[in-house]
Amino acid sequence: MPAIVRAREAVVPKADSVMQRARTVLVLLSMLAALIVVVAGGAYVMHLDGIVREKFEGKRWAIPARVYARPLVLQAGLPVAPTAVREELALLNYRPVAGAPTPGTYEFQGNTLYLHSRGFAFSDKREQPQLLRLRFSGERIGELASTQPGQGGAVRLEPLAIGGIYPSHNEDRILIQLKEAPPHLVEALLATEDQRFYSHVGISLRGILRAFLVNASAGSVVQGGSTLTQQLVKNFYLTDERSLRRKVNEALMALLLEWHYEKDEILETYLNEVNLGQQGNHSVNGFGLAAQYYFGQPLSELSLPQVALLVGMVKGPSYYNPRRQPARALERRNLVLDNLYREGRISRPERDAAMQLPLGVLERPMAATNLYPDFLDLVRRQLRDSYQAEDLSSQGLKIFTTLDPRAQNAAEAALDSTIARLRKQGRSLDKLEGVVLAADLRNGELRALLGGTGTFTGYNRSIDASRQVGSLLKPAIYLTALSSGQYTWMSPLDDGPVEVVSDAGKVWQPQNYDQQSHGVVPLRTALANSYNQAAVRLGMTVGLPAVINTLRQLGVEGDMKPYPSLLLGALNQTPMDVLQLYQVMLSGVRAPLQSIREVVDAKGNALQRFDGERRQVIDPADAYVLHYGLQQVMRQGTGASAYQRLPAAMVLAGKTGTTNDLRDSWFAGAAGDLLAVVWLGRDDNKPTGLSGGSGALPVWTDLMVRLQPAAAAPAMPPSVAWEWLDADTGRLSNETCSGGVQVPVSAKGRPQEMTACAAGGVPAFIDSVVDGVMNLFRRQ
């Protein structure tokens, strides 16, 4: 064999050996790479699995605290008028249906109301849905009967949800269980969005292929092949990014979700998670909240076309928004109805009848918004002392407040209509603002709070605006005098010119509003007409320290200098301060003003009850006598115009307030147990030209006209008696004597002297002449 051939043969085995080793290395590297990919892929899948399980098995949502108004209590004998119940049912979106066959419906038949309540879980008791029969006797519930035994004669309607305290991402939802879904909801959802939901494993290969072909032709991700499970994954875990990586994650997480959890659990979560709209910066999530937002009804009460509308919006809540795009929404709803028909879930007549109905959405959203932001602002402030902000926005707490929706709506209407009328009268009123507060006189529960007109900006004048109160302080002077036992309402008081000289020698000469002096008048007349000169003279007589002590007793805080100008209201107070002042002054009992009754956790357990301590701070006799004097303000004084619109049988007690240069217009007063304070003015403190009687009083009167509260006189304490007193001298008289006036007098304030007529020794006409001559000398 030639040497060259042997050399080639020697080289070939070596080359083959190198190639074989290279192949082996390549195979090993490939296996290693595959192992790395498998391990990394497995680790990545395990990472995704951890994400899926952690959120799905943990706290799935940050549930905002939901804030409720007070529930309307229905009980035989309560003073609740049929009009009040009708208004409440309208607020709760009850529907008039013959026979009231289902929850959320009612029917009036003359003075009888058939009402099918929805029920509600309170902390102390669950009110069951029930059919009620109420028979009204005038302005009272005369009789109440129920299909539920053992009601004890009283039923609470569900409270109106007035807002929420939202988490930082501004999501809101009302959680529901799958069994609470109305008929056809799940059927419509599956027929329209995912017909193979109960058979696929979380992804649809057919849908993915279709989406791939569409996206490939478009050159970008424009369509997904999403099942309901994938949609849930996208909403629950991922962002709206359109990329291949996100779609892969979505598919893997959908498979994992289906691996770990039952179909019904996934579907229930979807029903609570899907986005169905936007209200301001709050997203509307889940069908439970959407039912309230669009229809003002619980999800369980929705009809077939209403369900179809919500299901249709799943594809694009903004694009199919029924309020902004009603034509699109109607077309989409009808498509859902047709899908139900094609799937054999409804008949052709049912489909056709449903297609003919209007969308029926509310013009004003009933959820995902704060209906009364001024009141809710106070609720938040009162909760800050007891709860962390995160707990309020994520733990699903229920805040039961004292707000009366009828009173709040009436306050808004009264203020808006009066200010709109006043703003037309001149440039000084074009920036006029106002506040209305209403509370229960007995327990201090706030019924309404309005901190200004227009959109709430965060500046709550009812709490933050400190203004001079003017004549609103005068009743404290008269209370000081009456409680001393030295005065009655018929005690004579000089309303002539008065001068007060300060320690520095400066002379102060206050004048009456009408720039006139009125001579000697009874205390009752001086207060009723808000005479400044008489009030200053009386205040200086009883002493400024005594008046300040009375104000402290009434709850007025802050620095009160013993300056004579204090007697005419040279003191800054907020409207809330004034409401508390008059709550004490008109009842004699200090009941701290409360906006919250109870806080309940997500399981229905009561966490905290807000029961303010009530304290008797004024002698009941003095409070009753003062109340009478404030009634005279309304009968014959600066508040008398209220009776032009209100029944004479109503017992009204209140006081007007006007500050220097007509900058502030005030009125504070009560009709029975309903106390309200009104302030009108400008934020820049410029004059408005309005007195208390021409500005604030008309708002207060309009509020009472709208509410028509039961307004009876307060109960008279045993230590008070109605005595006949002489109008000129204040001495004891009787009903046969000329000039005799019957007024309430406390035992300690009963005069010791009698008129000659009352003593029985002088005829009435002679006694009258003698008293007239004596009064003539007094005035000189």
Main β sheet profile: 5 strands, mixed
Portion in strands: 15-25%
SSE-based structural type:
alpha+beta
Q: Count the beta strands.
A: 32
- C-alpha-based Rg, rounded: 38 Å
Report the CATH topology name of the largest domain. Beta-lactamase
CATH architecture identity of the largest domain: 3-Layer(aba) Sandwich
Task: Report how far the terminal alpha carbons are from each other.
Answer: 164 Å
From the spread of the alpha carbons, the general shape counts as elongated
Name of the CATH first level of the largest domain? Alpha Beta
CATH homologous superfamily assignment of the largest domain: DD-peptidase/beta-lactamase superfamily
